[in-house]
Structures are given as C-alpha cells and as structure tokens.
Write a structure and sequence with these properties.
By secondary structure, the chain is of the alpha/beta class. Among the domains are: 151 residues, Rossmann fold (3-Layer(aba) Sandwich), CATH 3.40.50; 126 residues, 2-Layer Sandwich (GMP Synthetase, Chain A, domain 3), CATH 3.30.300. It is built from 20 helices and 32 strands. The strands form 10 sheets. The chain has a 7-stranded mixed sheet, with helices on both faces. A 5-stranded parallel sheet has the order 7-6-8-11-12. Strand 19, helix 15 and strand 20 form a beta-alpha-beta unit. Helix 7 packs across helix 8, helix 13 crosses helix 15 and helix 19 packs parallel to helix 20. The protein is globular, with a radius of gyration of 24 Å. The chain starts with a helix and ends with a helix. It binds adenosine-5'-triphosphate and magnesium ion. The site of magnesium ion (MG) has 3 residues, from loops. Magnesium ion binds next to loops.
C-alpha cells in the first residue's frame, strides 16, 4: 500500500496513470481512448471515447452478484412508511420509471426537472434519467415558486416530476400549487408534469398538464428499457449551487468521470465496501444527496438508507434507532444536524446498540470544536469532517483513511484528496502561501474526475467565475479562505466574500464571529458588513444567547453588548469591534445549515435580500428584521 503522500503525488504528477487505474472500478461498455484531454483549459475531459452509464453501474451491474441484497432502505417518519428494495426490485422500479418517461417522449439529452420530497420515486426518477441519457436537474423540495421558476427557465426541462406533497415535522406542504405558480411565472413552457400521488395533499390541483404516475407505472410494469451508453463526457445532470453568495450556478457534471471519482472516494475516504449500509442524512436536492445517498453507495454495491423526516421526530433517538435496526455502518450528515441532536437528552443515544457504526462523516459548513468534541465523545467513533462544494462533486479535503490511517486534527477537515492539486494563494499577488499563511483555497488545472464540467449552457460564466479571480494565475478558486500547516492539513476559515473593509482594514467576519463565540454566554453568532458613511463598512453582529432571558433585566442588554465588544477588542483590536450587536433567538440559515449572511447584510443595509435559498425557519429572518428596527 502506498502512503497517502505517495498516492497523492502520483495522482498529481501522473494523473493519466492514476485515474486509468481507478477507472477499472466501473463498467465501460466501450473502453476509453484517452484518459484526459487537456487541449482546452480550463475545460478537462476525462476518459474520452469511453462509453458507460451511471444507472448500469449503480443497478444492473450488481444483479449478477447481489440481486437479493437490499439496495435501498426507505424510512419516512413523516408518513410512517419503512420499506426495503433489493437491487432486483430497484432495477424493476427504475425500468418502469424509465419506460414512463420514454412514453412521455423524454429523449437522450432532454432535461427532466425533479421537484420531489424524499420518496423512493425520487431515486427511481434520477436513475431512470441516467438510464435513458436524460439530464436530471433536481430542485430541492423546499424551494418556493419563484426559485423553481428561475430553475425551469435555466434548465428548460421536457418534463417535471413532482408529487402531490412533501411533509416536514408533521406539516404537509402541497407541491402542485407551487409547481403551478412556478409554471405560470416561468417564460419557458414545460409541456407536462408527472405526478407521484402520495395521497397526502388535502387539495390536489387539477390541471391538464398533470399526468398521473401510478396508472402509467402499471402499464409499464414489466418494461425493460436498455441503458443508453453515453460517451464519458456527455452531461449526466445539472445541479444548482445553494446560492449562499449570489445567483445560483448550474453545475454540470459528466458521466464517466463522476462514476470513477465516486467509486474511488467510497474506498479512499468512506471505506465503504459492497454489502455495507450507508445512511446519508441529507436531501436529494443537495450535492451530498446526489453523490452519497444515490450514486456512490449504489455504484459501490452498498445499501443506501433514504430518510424523510427531521432528526428529532418522533424523538431525538430516531437516527440511532435506525443505526441499530438496519445495522448502519457509515453515516454522513451536516454539523447543523449534530447541533440539533446535541440539545437532546443523551439517554436517547445510549438506548441503542451502535456497534455496527464505524464512522460518522460531516460536511457542508465549518465543524466547530464544541460540536466535534461532543459528538466524538458521545459516539466514541471517528468523526470525519470533509470539505467540498457542489462544484467538486466529492470531498476535496478529507482524511483518506482508506489509503492511510492519518490522524485527524481538530479544526481541520484534513488533507487534499486524490487529484485535487490544491494550493493556498495570496489574494493580492496570486503567489502560493507559506505554511501557516492565510490564503484562498485554489485548485490547479485540471480538476480531477467528478468535478463540474462547466456552468450549464454558459462556458463563459464557468471561465469568468471560477478561473479568473486569482491574479496572475489561471487556477480554480473555491472562494473560501484557508490555511495549511506543515503537514499539509488545511483549515477552512470562511468565505472570501465574508471579508469586510473597515476604515481600510480588511477583516474576516468569521474571525469576529469566533471572538464573539468564545464568550460563554453566546450560543451562535453571525457577523456581516454593512455600509458605513465614515468607515466604508462596519461590522454588525447578530447574537443568539444560550439563555435569552439574561438580557431582560434593566441595563443587562447594554452590559452584555459591552462585554461582547470587549471580547472582540481584546482578541482582534478595537477596529474589529461591531458597530451594533443585535440579540435574536435564532439565525437565518438554509435547510443545509449555511448562514444566510448575504440576506442578513442586505436587510441590515435596507436592501431587498433578493432570491433566498431554502430557509430553515422563516421566523429567523423576521427576527433579524425586527432586531434592525429596534
Ligand atoms: P453558492 O456557491 O451558490 O453561494 P454555496 O457555496 O453555499 O452556494 P455549496 O456548494 O452547497 O453552495 O456549499 C459549498 C461551501 O460550503 C464551501 O465552499 C464552503 O464554504 C462550505 N463548506 C462545505 N464543507 C465545509 C467544511 N467541511 N468546512 C467548512 N466549510 C465547508
Ligand atoms: Mg459556493
């Protein structure tokens, strides 16, 4: 076994040889002629000429050896439904869905917009698209009509697949009126909408464009739809980024490179073996869902657990109950879910047998030390932070325990993954940073397999957005700050646009947040820059206290504000001191746990926050509004 360092060096110095070996992990109907076409930087084409199919690799390929193994365990605590599907059953369901799509005239290259809650049909629909060569574009079921309309106009789908309703924490959300509104807002005319009827919505919309799935499924019950063999570089899907920092970008992914990268990551990073069970508690609307609920575990022959519900219903032990019951080996979620669980009674975890669980993976936002400590000591299993983006498709920084058992370092997701030629660069000069020096996390050309090919229908936006922001260097910018230590471990320090300029001093809002969080009374905090006529910008802090009542007594609020300002003064200097401290009881976040700094800053400056991503709780944004009114 090569060490991490050896394997990594080879993946960078000899990418063709390295990835040609990895490519053996999947089935190629036609072998590729070239591993890498680097004739048109920054575009990279992997496994040129090779023909394969994601659905074949995720489903059909396993029929010979594991037809009776569970492919999917579906659990909904919203509807009480728990169901297992073997690979043979999954194969049948995907064929039915593929036949239905074909009967609705969906062809290779057409887009299918999937606007579904976490139901098995969502997985069937994605795999059916892959099977017939249609490009899926999954839109998170929590998005409102205007967001959906924008994605319809960008993707121009031949078909939308939706359901009568989603459910969240016991509340039913009717989908058809949302789809109907989105269709009338969108300029692009979608010919038809396939409706999965869960019998949840009290009032179902009647519209001529709605086609019911169930009768068609019956009609095509015994259908067999052959896989469309696609050239490795044909698009498999378009997925929009969260939109935390601006207008969402349609991330376009290929077929062959994605399959190879995911298969490799399952061994190198996740150590998932065929027959293992993986529970990724995320949503199919996010990249984590695409890669680690659906494609990677199935390509690698695992059983994947798909969950509809929250982590605390019927109680905070539900996820641990699932670990025991389904003998889950690998779990993957976001730190935000762990923070929710941390507030639960620890007895709820101790009640269950967690001996099957090997590792918990966390990604999507910074993993703060208290949360990392808590979950590690509660679970007594390795907790692996990993850092990536919708754009990269799989972790670009992690601990590659499948290659070498490197130790974890608190505060760092780990070291660069195979093929990610990662360098921290000085934002002003583009020069590589020395160890310990803060810089922008960048990737050199070519991006490894599995990363975005381009922005959907906008090659120029791909080049201009990602490859032109670092001076004197044509490198991919992640737009995240980081610092790398002597051993190669990278810590992520926040986003580049979280930097504010106060009277000529450049300050990271994340540093100010950390200074404030260090105060024992503080539970959570968000700092944004707001326009200031004198200083250019000033910092505004939104603070959630552990005990909200603490500031109710006369003068207590002012006292707390002074204490917090003092904390910042003493750690970063008076220049970083927030101009205002606002107290709220919750912060506006996306459903995937990301702080909505852009929206908070817009409100603080009296601007329209624009298109909002999915919000965990709209009440939080109201609180920010109210706090600003005070
Ligand atoms: P947009 O690019 O549209 O503004 P977004 O960046 O929020 O949206 P995602 O691709 O979902 O969309 O999120 C990726 C970002 O999440 C990373 O760039 C980084 O800022 C953050 N992130 C992900 N994982 C980690 C992690 N382990 N530690 C710290 N930050 C992380
Ligand atoms: Mg981003």
């Amino acid at each position: 076994m090569p060490t991490y360092r050896e394997a990594y060096r080879r993946s960078i110095d000899e990418p063709e040889a390295f990835w040609a070996e990895q490519a053996r992990r999947i089935h190629w109907q036609t072998p590729f002629e070239r591993v890498l076409d680097r004739s048109k930087p920054p575009f990279a084409r992997w496994f040129v000429g090779g023909k394969t199919n994601l659905c074949h690799n995720a489903v059909d390929r396993h029929l010979a050896s594991r037809a009776q193994q569970d492919a999917l365990v579906y659990v909904s605590t919203e509807t009480g439904i728990e169901r297992r599907y073997t690979y043979a059953e999954l194969h049948a369901e995907v064929n039915r869905m593929a036949a239905v799509m074909r009967s609705l005239h969906v062809k290779k290259g057409d887009r299918v917009l999937i606007y579904l809650p976490m139901i098995p049909e969502a997985l069937f629909a994605m795999l059916a698209c892959a099977r017939i060569g249609a490009i899926h574009s999954v839109v998170f079921g929590g998005f409102a009509a205007p967001n959906l309309a924008a994605r319809i106009d960008d993707a121009e789908p031949a078909l939308i697949v939706t359901a009568d309703a989603g459910a969240r924490a016991g509340k039913v959300i009717d989908y058809t009126p949302l789809v109907d509104e989105a269709l009338s807002r969108a300029e692009y005319k979608v010919p038809q909408v396939l409706l999965i009827d869960r019998q949840l919505a009290p009032e179902r919309l009647q519209a001529s464009y709605l086609v019911a799935y169930e009768p068609l499924r019956e009609q095509f019950f015994d259908a067999h739809v052959p896989c469309e063999w696609l050239e490795s570089n044909e698009p498999s899907y378009v997925l929009y980024t969260s939109g935390t920092t601006g207008r969402p970008k349609g991330v376009q992914r290929d077929v062959g490179g994605y399959a190879v990268a995911l298969a490799a990551s399952m061994e190198h990073i996740f150590q998932g073996a065929p027959g293992d069970t993986m529970f990724t508690a995320s949503d199919i609307g996010w990249v984590v869902g695409h890669s680690y609920i659906i494609y990677a575990p199935l390509i690698a022959g695992l059983t994947t657990v798909m969950y509809e519900g929250t982590p605390i219903r019927p109680d905070g032990g539900i996820w641990w109950r699932l670990v025991q019951q389904y003998k889950i080996n690998l779990m993957f979620t976001a730190p935000t879910a762990i923070r929710v669980l941390k507030k639960q009674d620890p007895a709820l975890m101790e009640k269950y047998d967690l001996s099957s669980l090997r590792t918990l993976f966390l990604a999507g936002e910074p993993l703060d030390e208290p949360t990392a400590h808590w979950i590690q000591s509660a679970l007594k299993k390795p907790v692996i932070d990993n850092y990536w983006q919708t754009e990269t498709g799989w972790p670009m920084i992690a601990i590659p325990r499948g290659i070498e058992e490197l130790p974890s370092k608190l505060g760092s997701p780990g070291v660069p993954s195979m093929g990610f030629n990662l360098t921290l660069r000085n934002e002003a000069t583009g020069d590589a940073c020395a160890p310990g020096e803060k810089g922008v996390v960048t990737l050199a050309y070519p991006l490894p397999p599995g990363c975005m090919q381009t922005v959907w229908r906008d090659d120029q936006r791909f080049v201009d957005t990602y490859w032109k922001s670092v001076p004197n260097q044509m490198v991919y910018s992640t737009f995240d700050w980081g610092v790398q230590d002597e051993d190669g471990y990278v810590s992520i320090l926040g986003r580049t646009d979280d930097v504010i300029n106060v009277a000529g001093h450049r300050l990271g809002t994340r540093e100010i947040e950390e200074a404030l969080s260090a105060h024992p009374a503080v539970a959570e905090v968000a700092v944004v820059g707001i326009a200031d006529s004198v200083k250019g910008q000033a910092a505004a802090a939104f603070v959630v206290l552990r005990d909200a009542d603490r500031i109710n007594a006369p003068g207590a609020r002012e006292g707390m504000e002074a204490e917090l300002c003092h904390a910042v003064d003493s750690q970063l200097g008076a220049i970083a001191r927030p101009a205002r401290v606002h107290f709220v009881t919750m912060l506006p976040k996306t459903r995937s746990g990301k702080l909505l700094r852009r929206a908070i800053a817009a409100l603080a400056e009296g601007r329209d926050p624009g298109e909002l991503p999915t919000i965990e709780d709209p009440g939080a944004l109201m609180q920010v509004r109210e706090a600003l009114g005070n």
